[in-house]
Amino acid sequence: MAAEAPYVSMTDIQGHWAAPAIQECVDMAIVRGNPDGTFRPNATISRAEFLALVVRAFDIPAGTEEVTFPDVKKGDWFLPELEAAQKAGIAGGYPDGTFRPTKGVSRAEMVAMVVRAARQDLSPLRAGSTFPDVPDGWMTEPVRQALQSGIVGGYADGRFYPDKQASRAEAAVVMLRALYAMQVPEKQPDDQQLTAQVIASEGAGIDEMNHQDYSMTKSLQYTIGQARAMTISQADDLAAYGASGARLNIVPQTQNAVVSQKRQRTAQVRYHFTYEITVTAPDLEKQNVVDGTLIYSLRIQGGEWKIYKIESVSSS
């Protein structure tokens, strides 16, 4: 059971209209920020960059076919993603045979790639045909599907502007909406599969916590499942007695995991717990019972369901 990935917050998305979607995609490891901690939501996104997001979001397996675009060479950072996307029939080139990886991806191209990646798994949520500025041709059907499934909407004037270059913020929003629109019932996971994943994560965290020697300060930073909250709840005791070799023992009293939301590639599980916690050190033994509720967020990654975020539910 791998350790939970650290939370990463972009420094320049606060107050932005797409901030929630951007942060969710960052949490999912679909989009990445810049080395300086910024996301630059209003900057344009290239065809190669967007293609990489599609491959990560839809967990497309690596391709083995050789890419033959004259403007793509070995060593290009996006080559593995392009090979995977080409094998899956997601990305194609221009009539002149080029791919134009650094060209800004248009809104129509962005939608076409996402719809192809989702294949027939998008559930129509509303009526709608297309936009008045979307011509008949290669983009007509992808835009129609995207509109009906709620992936895209028009501008205030009712137009789509298919040739306009997409921004990084728009890319994150479209990607997240596409994952949420994949709601074909027979292709969704079994509830037991998801709840078992959460219980296993909690068990791994508890087992690890129960075997830690808290005379090591680094143990206070351990972050796996509910073990993080348990450590925090006993932080004062552990810090005070850590030098003497304090130990923590967590014993589950109740564990209740219920799937609160699921789609084909994303899901949430609501986990309620009651744990008895004992802190033991020389000349000390303290015991108390804690309970609470967590929301586990999961997604398909590497062909398996994996936990990417754990949030505490505040008591009302």
How does the SSE layout of this entry go?
Elements: H1 19-27, H2 47-57, H3 79-87, H4 107-118, H5 140-148, H6 168-180, H7 191-210, H8 227-233, H9 235-241, E1 247-262, E2 266-281, E3 284-301, E4 304-312
Helix pairs in contact: 1-6, 2-3, 2-4, 2-6, 4-5, 4-6
Structure description:
- The protein has 316 residues and is α+β, with helices and mostly antiparallel strands.
- The chain has two domains: 19-186, no CATH class; 188-312, Nuclear Transport Factor 2, Chain: A, CATH 3.10.450.
- The protein is built from nine helices and four strands.
- The longest helix has 20 residues, at 191-210.
- It is elongated.
- The protein starts with 18 loop residues before the first helix and ends with a strand.
What is the structure about, briefly put?
31% of the residues lie in helices and 19% in strands. It has 316 residues and is α+β, with helices and mostly antiparallel strands. Strand 2 and strand 3 (284-301) form a beta hairpin.
Specify the biggest β-sheet: 4 strands, antiparallel
Count of DSSP H/I helices: 9
Number of strands: 4
Q: Which stretches of 5+ consecutive residues score pLDDT under 50? A: 1-6, 216-224
Which term fits the overall shape? elongated
* Oligomerization category of the chains in this entry: single chain
